[in-house]
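Anyone up for a design puzzle?
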């Protein structure tokens, strides 16, 4: 359930990000914002994949969910 909620939050952010940033950044800026968000997600998954075998998996999972929550809250 926590992973489903986290994924729903990620999809919700990507869905609404365009509408939120287009008035300020324009269409090109909104596209760059989506690209940056996607690149950050990809990079985070790759880095997590490299370290998850060396650390406590529950702790890593909790940390990634907390980082996502903080990112959405700001």
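Challenge accepted. My sequence:
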């Amino acid at each position: 359930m926590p992973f489903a909620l986290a994924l729903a939050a990620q999809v919700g952010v990507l869905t609404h990000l365009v509408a939120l940033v287009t008035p300020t950044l324009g269409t090109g800026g909104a596209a760059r914002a989506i690209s940056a968000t996607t690149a950050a997600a990809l990079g985070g998954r790759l880095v997590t994949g490299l370290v998850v075998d060396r650390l406590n998996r529950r702790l890593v999972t909790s940390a990634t969910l907390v980082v996502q929550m903080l990112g959405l809250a700001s």
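A detail worth pointing out: The longest helix spans residues 2-51.
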